[in-house]
Amino acid sequence: MGTINVTVKLFASLKKGRFDEKSFTFPEGTTLSDVISSLGLPKEEVVLIFVNGRHMFPESTPSDGDTISLFPAVGGG
Amino acid sequence: MDYNKQAMISYREKGLSLNEREKIRYNRQIIYGDFGEEGQLKLKGSHVLIAGTGGLGSPNAINLVYAGIGKITVVDCDVVELSNLNRQSLHWEENINQEKVYSGAEKLKRMNPNVEVIPLHTRITDENVDGLIADCDLVIDCMDNMATRFIINEACVKRGIPFIFGGIRGLEGQITTIIPGKTPCLECIFPRGIEGKKPFPVFGATPAFIASLQSMEAIKLLAGFGELLAGRMLYFSGETMEFTIIKIEKKNECKICSGGKS
Lengths: 77, 262
Known about the structure:
Chain A is mainly β. Chain A is 9% helix and 39% strand. In chain B, strands 3-2-1-4-5-6-7-8 form an 8-stranded mixed sheet, sandwiched between helices.
């Protein structure tokens, strides 16, 4: 099985103590949920996922060269 | 732009006009090129429901009452607490323990007696939501929880009523405008079960800022000018002063807006 290289961008509170933008290599077939887990991000804190600027869901599988943007929940009012 | 045909034609059907005092009161917005007296009449002919009168709801209600929306219904089930007073600008020391909608409505009516303000002290539920929004041209989301947002979203999609989503936490906020049939709905965007921990941290400036963006969207949508955050999510971080706008798309299998299963 091959691998994919992706760029992960963290936004707002998610990047505190982590990073702004970083490249990673994952096995092909890795889901976005797997990516989030591998970064040590609590799943409940990541509510919006965009791949190359398009809204995606955790079960989606990114492709080689994709940029994954992760946003936290801001559900107060 | 024809996002809300009902509001655009209703002022003519109602035979509305602006009196001399209204022309003076609203002059600074009437002289805005794409707005004019017709824009003001569209606002006058509109009914907006503001769901929640807390951090987001207070400045939204104030902005829209000053703007001259004809009828505003404010809905909230809470009473004013001391810990609300760092941000909920419609409520003051003297209102502690009073129902928020009555505390707010009394001041809103004094700010602009031309606006009909209807306070409803009730919790928004699956059972009552349809009746609450049935007569509205627009719903503004000022809730403090996702569960109620999903209830409002579903009802708005079914009735084809636009819904301006806003959320805040700390110094962060997000906003998108949902146009049923044209844009993704809340169910397309957010997973279920993402309720944040309460109490959530927040500075008063955050909801005041996001609410002002919601109010701008409301005015543009009702008057029919400008570009809406339709199909786009604006994400704001006050800590770094970053603004990010991301395109969002409908989920094909969305059970709320696409007749799907998820």
